[in-house]
Amino acid sequence: MAGRQSLHANGDGWAAGPGGARMWGRYGAAGLFLVASSDRGPMVLMQHRAAWTNFGDTWGIPGGARDLNETVEQAAVRETVEECAIDPEHIEVVGAEVTAGPFDAAAGLPGGWTYTTVIARSKDGKMLSTTANEESYELRWVLIEELEDLPLLTPFRQALPRIRQLIEPLI
């Protein structure tokens, strides 16, 4: 949390979702779908989430809670830097799409709670080196065509067909 805003502006915490579900991120959440090239085809950086995290022991993209005054792009990149130790100078954001929500009951947020998938690519097209923090069991570059072979976080699995449409111009 180093360098983040005051406790009030910090987005870490639960928000109310549909049917009383708890949604991580007081101001919503965002993740980074980071695409790179390999000789085997397009790859995406995936995170095997530690058991103690929200949706633990599943695979998803790096991401997390949005802070109060952050854009979704800023939140997704910040969370990826925190969780993967990637230099943000090597990331080019190319788009964003709400892939869960809006959930109107969410903590009184204008427009409701959302999860936004931010689409990005490595600037040189290559897979970036990563170092996992305590929120991950593992970080791995995975062929996009093999994503569904992993035990994916359920909302990510549900959003994957739409995400594939969005990234088609990149690959």
From TrEMBL:
This protein's record includes keyword Hydrolase: yes
Q: Which UniProt keywords apply?
A: Hydrolase
* Pfam families xref list: NUDIX (PF00293)
Q: Please report the stretch or stretches of sequence annotated as the Nudix hydrolase domain.
A: 25-164
Which PROSITE patterns does the UniProt entry name for this protein?
NUDIX
Question: Membrane: is it a keyword of this entry?
Answer: no
Q: Which GO terms describe its molecular function?
A: hydrolase activity
Q: Say which domain of life the source belongs to.
A: Bacteria
The UniProt entry, under InterPro entries, shows: NUDIX_hydrolase-like_dom_sf (IPR015797), NUDIX_hydrolase_dom (IPR000086)
Signal peptide as annotated in the record: none
Cited SUPFAM superfamilies: Nudix
Q: Which cofactor does it need?
A: Mg(2+)
Family annotation (Gene3D superfamilies):
Nucleoside Triphosphate Pyrophosphohydrolase
Name of protein: NUDIX domain-containing protein
Which organism is this entry from? Corynebacterium casei UCMA 3821
